[in-house]
Amino acid sequence: MNTHIEQLYRSAKKRSRVIIGLMSGTSLDGLDVALCRIEGQGTDTQIALLEFCTVDYDDNYKQKIKSVFAQRQVDLQQVTLLNPWIGVLHGQMINQCLAKWGVDASDIDAIASHGQTIYHCPLRQHGQSEFGNGTLQIGDADHLAVTTGILTVADFRQKHIAAGGEGAPLAVYGDYLFFTSRQENRILLNMGGIANLTYLPLTADSSAVFSSDIGPGNTIMDAYVQKHFAPLHYDKDSAIARQGEIHTGLLEALKQHEFFTLDFPKTTGPEVFNLRYLMDAQQRTNTQALAPQDVMATLNFFSAHVIAQAINDCAGNLADFSVYASGGGIHNPLLMEHILSLCPRVSIIEDTSKLGINPDAKEAVLFAILANECLVGGQQTFGNITQGIPNITMGKISFPD
Length: 401
Ligand SMILES: Nc1ncnc2c1ncn2[C@@H]1O[C@H](COP(=O)(O)OP(=O)(O)OP(=O)(O)O)[C@@H](O)[C@H]1O
Ligand SMILES: CC(=O)N[C@H]1[C@@H]2OC[C@@H](O2)[C@@H](O)[C@@H]1O[C@H](C)C(=O)O
Hints:
Blueprint: H1 3-13, E1 16-24, E2 30-39, E3 46-56, H2 59-66, H3 76-101, E4 110-121, H4 123-126, E5 134-138, H5 141-148, E6 152-154, H6 157-162, H7 171-179, E7 186-191, E8 194-200, E9 210-216, H8 219-228, H9 248-255, H10 275-285, H11 292-315, E10 322-326, H12 333-342, E11 349-351, H13 362-376, E12 396-398
Parallel strand pairs: 1-4, 4-6, 7-10, 10-11
Antiparallel strand pairs: 1-2, 2-3, 4-5, 6-12, 7-8, 8-9
Bound molecules: adenosine-5'-triphosphate (ATP) and the ligand CC(=O)N[C@H]1[C@@H]2OC[C@@H](O2)[C@@H](O)[C@@H]1O[C@H](C)C(=O)O.
């Protein structure tokens, strides 16, 4: 048998696999590295998070990604060079983590690499009917595999689009396997650069499950802080927003976007919700001279408003439900206070540690689950494609040799 097929076969026959999940999100803060032991597959999946760390990106990395990130016109040579460069860098970061944890590469079955999204554009957004939905993640998996010596599963989003989805959110595939409960309706809320949610009914009826992006989580706040409060990268503990006052005129202008009127499921990114979006709203309301602290207070409330509205819409007329949060937004206390104040039916928002998953690691763990499904699982069955969740497994496989 071909040695690569043999390797896959051996791995698939094992009772459990050790998989490193990687996530590098829209916040460009660092690479999340989750070392997971995964037993079984499908609804029998059991996960143990053995180690987790975020390897911070240095300014050089951030600057290089920003030069091509979420922009319609970029230097194509730079994109071509960044693709392998990120692959090698992510590989080196994994090697560092393994050395720190005292784990040998030969003990790892696979790396599950999300890569770095540099552009996301559903058809609704680009509006060119001859093209479909599009999304692009770079950080080549062959380079990761060769740098680490570990089989790498990557580029998960293309299959989702090929099968009729928008390429996101993929969280639902992991959330459904891991967080479905027979005791309560659950809303899993992730607040990264972009916020998204997954609805898991207590009936566990997979055809009623859905997942959707919500709109801006931290992305506009982060971009504003980086521009007006450099060298800060984000509004740590809401310190800046707390000093300001919400400007209701600007807030109303920020709320005016077609995206918020669309039904779930839908996806978006910093291609839409960025500093230009804020500047347009400031121009329309003549608030260009507003104190930066007031702008931050308004942006914080704006994110809370869109997130709360999505929770309230998702909950609809459910008699009872619980919300479990993850992503960097949970560390923004003012944002959390606002969300609670805007969701009268929610008395507490727990984070996913209550369900056994470190909230900062959740997305990296998700990709480990997706890689496990790619290697040994079968297709999950959800309702139908109108919910944006095609019945597929995702990921492409790169061998180190
Ligand atoms: N102590 C804190 N106070 C305020 N905000 C914080 C704090 N810690 C983290 N954050 C926010 O969380 C962000 C990082 O979130 P996260 O790592 O979930 O993003 P991401 O994975 O890049 O996003 P996405 O899910 O959109 O891809 C930071 O940029 C910051 O805005
Ligand atoms: C195209 C892309 O990278 N989208 C990300 C982004 O970050 C949050 C939100 O927008 C979500 O849709 C998605 O990531 C998560 C992991 C997902 O697919 O579930």
